[in-house]
TrEMBL record:
Protein name (database record): Enoyl-CoA hydratase domain-containing protein 3, mitochondrial
PANTHER family linked to this entry: ENOYL-COA HYDRATASE DOMAIN-CONTAINING PROTEIN 3, MITOCHONDRIAL, PTHR43602
Species of provenance: Desulfotomaculum copahuensis
GO molecular function: hydro-lyase activity
Family (UniProt): Belongs to the enoyl-CoA hydratase/isomerase family.
Record's keyword terms, sorted: Fatty acid metabolism, Lipid metabolism, Transit peptide
Function recorded in the entry: May play a role in fatty acid biosynthesis and insulin sensitivity.
Length: 258
C-alpha cells in the first residue's frame, strides 16, 4: 500500500498508520483524508490485522484541517473537504477492528476530533488537546460531535467556547483518552494495549465493537433486548465455541475469526 501522506506497516496482528505531513503539522488535507479513508476501508476488508493504531510523524499528532484549503476553497470545495472528513470518521466507526490513537505533541481541531473518533486513545503526559476554532471565527462544530460524546457536556463546551488547551492529565480524567504515560513510553504502552486486544477473537471483537456503538443511544431495555440477540448469535460462532472449550479444558484458544 503506497500513499503520499501516510505510512503503513503491520506487526504482530496490529496495523500502524502514521500521518506523514510533518512539514504541515500533519494537517488533515482533503487528499490525506481520502488516503486515510481508503486505507481504513482496505484494512477493514482484508482483516489481516486485529487492531489499528493511528499516530503522527514529527513533533505533533495533528493540527487539524488544512486551513489554506478552507480559506482558498469555494463553498462547494469546503463542503467536500468536510464531507471527506465525515467519510474518514465513518470508516473508523464501521471497520471491524478497534482503532487506537497514539497521541504526542498536540491534537487540535479536527486532530482532536480524530482522537475522539478513535475507539481508544493513549497519550503522552505532555500532549495537549484543543478545539480552538472559535479563536479564528470558525467554531469547531464538527469536532464538537465526537468531543461531546467523549467528555462531559460542560467540559466539551468549555473547550469549544474558550479554545484553550486541555493537558493530557485532564483528558484522562474527562474521558478523552484511556491512558497517559511518559513520552518515552508512549509507543510501548500503545503497542501493549493493541497486543492485549489483538490476542482476542477478531470476530468477537468486531461483533462487540458494532454492538457497543449501536446500543449507546437506545433506551436501557431496548439496548438490553438488542444485546441479548447479539450475544445469543455470538454464542453460535466457531470462535465462541472454541473459546468456551479452551476455558473448560484450561488451554489457550485457537481463533479462526469465524
Amino acid at each position: 500500500m503506497n500513499y503520499q501522506y501516510l505510512l503503513y506497516s503491520e506487526k504482530e496482528k496490529t496495523g500502524y498508520i502514521s500521518l506523514n505531513r510533518p512539514e504541515k503539522r500533519n494537517a488533515l488535507s482533503r487528499a490525506l483524508l481520502e488516503e486515510l479513508t481508503d486505507l481504513l476501508n482496505k484494512i477493514g476488508a482484508e482483516k489481516r490485522v486485529n487492531v489499528v493504531v493511528v499516530k503522527g510523524i514529527g513533533k505533533i499528532f495533528s493540527a487539524g484541517h488544512d486551513l489554506k484549503e478552507v480559506s482558498d476553497g469555494g463553498p462547494q470545495d469546503v463542503l467536500q473537504l468536510f464531507q471527506t472528513c465525515f467519510g474518514t470518521m465513518r470508516a473508523i466507526r464501521e471497520m471491524p477492528q478497534p482503532v487506537i490513537a497514539q497521541v504526542h505533541g498536540v491534537a487540535t481541531a479536527a486532530g482532536c476530533q480524530l482522537v475522539a473518533a478513535c475507539d481508544l486513545a493513549v497519550a503522552a503526559e505532555d500532549a495537549l488537546f484543543a478545539t480552538p476554532g472559535v479563536k479564528i471565527g470558525l467554531f469547531c462544530t464538527t469536532p464538537a460531535v465526537f468531543l461531546s460524546r467523549n467528555v462531559g457536556r460542560k467540559k466539551a463546551l468549555e473547550m469549544l467556547l474558550t479554545g484553550e488547551f486541555m493537558p493530557a492529565k485532564d483528558a484522562l480524567v474527562y474521558g478523552l483518552v484511556n491512558r497517559v504515560v511518559p513520552p518515552g513510553e508512549l509507543e510501548e504502552a500503545t503497542q501493549k494495549l493493541a497486543a492485549t486486544i489483538a490476542r482476542h477473537s477478531p470476530s468477537a471483537v468486531a461483533v462487540g465493537k458494532r454492538a457497543f456503538y449501536r446500543q449507546l443511544n437506545m433506551e436501557d431495555f431496548q439496548a438490553l433486548n438488542y444485546a441479548t440477540e447479539v450475544i445469543s448469535l455470538n454464542s453460535t460462532t466457531e470462535d465462541a465455541r472454541e473459546g468456551i472449550r479452551a476455558f473448560l479444558e484450561k488451554r489457550e484458544p485457537e481463533w479462526t475469526g469465524r
